Amino acid sequence: MEKACIECRKIPDRYFDIDIGRICYDCFNTNNETDVEKPKFIKKVCLVHKCSTYNHNMMARHEMPWCEVVSVETNGVQKPKTKYNPDVGGLNGNIGRHYYKDWIEYVQQKDKMISAEKSWKKFRDTHGRRRKSRRAYH
Question: pLDDT for 28-78, tens place per residue?
């Protein structure tokens, strides 16, 4: 009767005899491999714009009121795509707000509203109110 492997319980073709029994070649190789773990890093990911960075200051420069930013732990550093994409935004890993269409539109709308409010106040002050004369009519 042949002995089975002490790890996988199969009857091996290639094996090593050790003190406690027989171990197959595949189980022996997997046990001896030392797994070198890459260090873990925290990456900030914007789910709305599908961009990410390991630099927390860069994400602070990116974050807009409608962004959903989550933290993701990764093994090692995953390099971002550095090519400019006008649909998404960003340039060479820079994910600042000024590259994104929705931020540009938001700023333009804000400027239009401020300008319209100033124009309305100016119009109201010159034409909107009727001023009464201080002189009394007899």
Answer: 776 554 556 778 899 888 888 888 888 888 888 888 999 999 999 988 887
Looking at residue 22, its amino acid is R
Does 105 share its domain with 77? yes
Question: Does 138 map to a domain?
Answer: no
Regarding whether 72 and 95 lie in a shared domain, the answer is yes
Find the domain containing 47 and state its range.
37-125
Does 42 share its domain with 5? Answer: no
pLDDT grade for 135, boundaries at 50, 70 and 90: low
C-beta contacts of 6-11 below 8 A and 24+ residues apart: 7/31
Secondary structure in 3-state letters for 59-72: HHHHCCCCCCEEEE
CA dihedral 43, 46, 52, 56 (to 10 degrees): -60
